[in-house]
Amino acid sequence: MTNFSSQILADIEYAADLFRQAERAVVLTGAGISTSSGIPDFRSEGTGLWAKDEPLEVGSLTTFRHDPEKFYKWFHPLAGQIYKAKPNSAHLALAQLEKAGRLKKIVTQNIDMLHQKAGSEKVIEMHGTLGTLSCLGCYQQYGCKDFLPPYLEHGTIPHCPACGAVLKPDVILFGEQLPHKAWLEAQQACRDCDLMLVAGSSLEVLPVAGLPMQAIDRGAHLIIINQTPTYLFVRADINILENVADILPQIKDQVMYGQTN
Ligand SMILES: [Zn+2]
């Protein structure tokens, strides 16, 4: 905790205060919470895989339907990084806050399952998950454990054991709609919350980026921890422009073990 400026230390304390006062805190997480687990922010322009491989075309539902091999070849390095990734201190802090009754829901833009690996249970996945795959032929859904290891090790493209059609990871590709149920749940959680924490999201991908606005329009407090400013910078009670993996454990410690005022 020694390296932070006095301003950031004050922000951490204030954030912990807001958490202690909150009855229905909700967190929205994005790629920035998983970079410390070795997963690149693949939607960031100029940095991730998207930039190298014309992602709008390759990572689209249309491409997948016409040429799943091309998709699976492109997706391979990212899938490998995700599959072997472990949750970091930020995921663990959120899981502890949830267990302590301080956090009602996690709405995540990530597909990496790291919140669940950290022990969180109330997770709404807005962009799907790599944890399951679905058959494009008969719609049967399968867990990833029988299919991802052979794909990652030998490039074996997953096929449906029942009908033989190709399996698609249950991640939302460009051109695909968000899962309806997840979207409704997330909207409900954000409209009902009295504290919204944005952790590691630049709030650039719609419509999820609009969720914090729904919260603050109904009177919720807003804390944003992200390395770059977001469009809600001026609306937030607190902006901490740091890595969430450094900040969230400090907030969690103060919420759970710090002074009660
Ligand atoms: Zn099938």
Give the tags.
261 residues, alpha/beta, three-stranded antiparallel beta sheet, 9 strands, binds zinc ion
Characterization of the model:
Helix content is 39%, strand content 16%. It is α/β, with parallel strands linked by helices. The strands form 2 sheets. A 6-stranded parallel beta sheet has the order 3-2-1-7-8-9, sandwiched between helices. Strands 5-4-6 form a 3-stranded antiparallel beta sheet, covered by helices on one side. Helix 7 links the parallel strand 2 and strand 3 (123-125). Helix 1 packs across helix 11 and helix 6 (89-99) runs parallel beside helix 11. The protein starts with 5 loop residues before the first helix and ends with a helix. The model is unreliable at 45-53 (pLDDT under 50). The protein binds zinc ion. Zinc ion is lined by residues 135, 137-138, 140, 160, 162-163, 165. Residues 135, 137-138, 140, 160, 162-163, 165 line the site of zinc ion.
What would a concise description of this structure say?
With 261 residues, this protein is α/β, with parallel strands linked by helices.
Task: Give me the strand/helix succession.
Answer: HEHHHHHEHEEEHEHEHEEH
Radius of gyration: 19 Å
Overall strand count: 9
Task: Supply the helix-strand structural class.
Answer: alpha/beta
The fraction of residues assigned to DSSP E strands is 15-25%
Helix content: 25-40%
Mean pLDDT: 91
Could you give the topology of this structure?
Blueprint: H1 6-21, E1 25-29, H2 49-52, H3 55-58, H4 61-66, H5 68-84, H6 89-99, E2 105-108, H7 114-118, E3 123-125, E4 128-135, E5 141-143, H8 148-154, E6 167-171, H9 180-192, E7 195-199, H10 211-216, E8 221-225, E9 238-240, H11 244-257
Parallel strand pairs: 1-2, 1-7, 2-3, 7-8, 8-9
Antiparallel strand pairs: 4-5, 4-6
Helix pairs in contact: 1-11, 6-11
The site of zinc ion has 8 residues, from loops.
